[in-house]
Amino acid sequence: MTNKKQKTFQFIKIQLVGNSGVGKTSLLNVFNDKEFEFNNSTTYGVEFETKEITLGEKTVIVQICDTGGQEAYRSIPKIYYRNSHGYLFVYDITNYQSFDEIASWQEDVFNNCKPKVQFILIGNKKDKEDYRKVSIEIAKKYAKENNMSFLETSAKDNINVGKAFLQVLEQCVENNVFEVFEATNDRKRVVKSCGLIVNGVDEKNNDSGKCC
């Protein structure tokens, strides 16, 4: 009997990083085709979503970790940074402090992440232009100085949300920053669970809904 060649999947883990209230959870929800919620509950610790997408001819399984931005939970995400491939640093364009503290979040990531990871700076809440506190020029300058891509988004109006996630995913693929695994009978479990694929190894069956 001839064995059929198993299909290979790429696995990319993305982290949403930034202060509490900047809209990280809303961006994730909109990217996952959920409705925007005006009164989204605060994220405590780390939550995740997993999605399968197609980039060109490649099938990519994306695990997105949404990290709580409160100071009390600041140290929690650090243990997850080392296995991530891409980061969206998110600030609120109506809150200058959230932009100013991106540098601190960036330092946390740089001190814990693997080499060659990809970054993008996201200015969220573009729909609140009348209340803008962070200019596009200042944000672009910061992104350029830190070798990051830059986009402004609105989760409320679904502006550039998909583009933001796809851009960092495409950067990961172009720079070979991902893990690879073969499809198996328990692939559904791989997709469903967070942290099963670390350096291509099935390490942990975690169905609890908590990030690896």
From TrEMBL:
SUPFAM superfamilies: P-loop containing nucleoside triphosphate hydrolases. It holds the Pfam family Ras. Keywords: GTP-binding, Lipoprotein, Nucleotide-binding. Gene3D superfamilies: P-loop containing nucleotide triphosphate hydrolases (3.40.50.300). One of its GO terms (molecular function) is GTPase activity. Transmembrane segments: none annotated. NCBIfam families: small_GTP (TIGR00231). PANTHER family: PTHR47978. InterPro entries: P-loop_NTPase, Small_GTP-bd, Small_GTPase. This is Uncharacterized protein.
